[in-house]
Design a protein that fits this description.
Largest sheet: none
Order of helices and strands: HHHHHH
Length: 136
């Protein structure tokens, strides 16, 4: 039992370290795609927290947001977090899909209010409203 707890603590420590790395990279990298990817998960966490508390968000969208949060917090990943650069990719994909689903349920202005990062990133994820939500 003790060995299992030690392994769980190590996995949790690696997860926290990878999140810390993302936060540092999001602040220190020069503008560009790498910085956008590093900032995406922290921005999603903030947006999810804000959307979960917003009364204008329907229950289905809140469930999708909570699922995305649980996926990111889960130590079980398709791609292990400790692999540099590509480790967080499965988290990014799941969060993007959940936010895109929630984005179809929630008015765009509510999502834009909740998004703390670059508006162009959330707009690209949500798609062009003139094109029926398809990315432009």
């Amino acid at each position: 039992m003790r060995e299992w707890l030690v392994r769980l603590a190590i996995a949790f420590g690696v997860l926290l370290a990878s999140w810390a790395l993302l936060f540092v990279l999001a602040r220190r990298l020069p503008p560009g795609i790498l910085r956008d990817l590093a900032a995406f998960i922290p921005d999603c966490v903030t947006a999810a927290r804000r959307l979960r508390k917003d009364p204008r968000v329907p229950r289905r969208a809140k469930i999708a947001v909570v699922f995305a949060g649980l996926w990111v917090a889960s130590p079980i990943d398709l791609i292990p977090e400790f692999i540099p650069i590509i480790g967080p990719l499965d988290d990014i994909v799941v969060v993007a899909l959940c936010l895109r689903y929630a984005g179809r349920q929630v008015p765009r202005e509510v999502l834009l209010e909740a998004w703390p990062g670059e508006p162009r990133l959330i707009n690209r994820l949500l798609g062009d409203p003139a094109r029926g939500g398809r990315p432009g």
